[in-house]
């Protein structure tokens, strides 16, 4: 999740510098939460099968 947030901030700062910092933080936080949720459900399924 942290890696996704850092990469999202970097990409938004590099390619979309006209977006305000607060909006970039919100977008990065949303991406991190979404990736964390997807990872949680995908890895949770593997634990239940064992």
TrEMBL record:
Question: What GO terms are given for molecular function?
Answer: kinase activity
Span-the-membrane segments of this chain are 23-43
Q: List keywords of the entry alphabetically.
A: Kinase, Membrane, Transferase, Transmembrane, Transmembrane helix
| Protein name listed in UniProt | Histidine kinase
- Source species: Cytobacillus praedii
């Amino acid at each position: 999740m942290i890696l996704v947030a850092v990469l999202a901030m970097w990409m938004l700062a590099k390619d979309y510098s006209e977006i305000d910092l607060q909006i970039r933080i919100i977008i990065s936080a949303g991406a991190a939460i979404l990736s964390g949720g997807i990872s949680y459900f995908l890895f949770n399924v593997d634990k239940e099968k064992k």
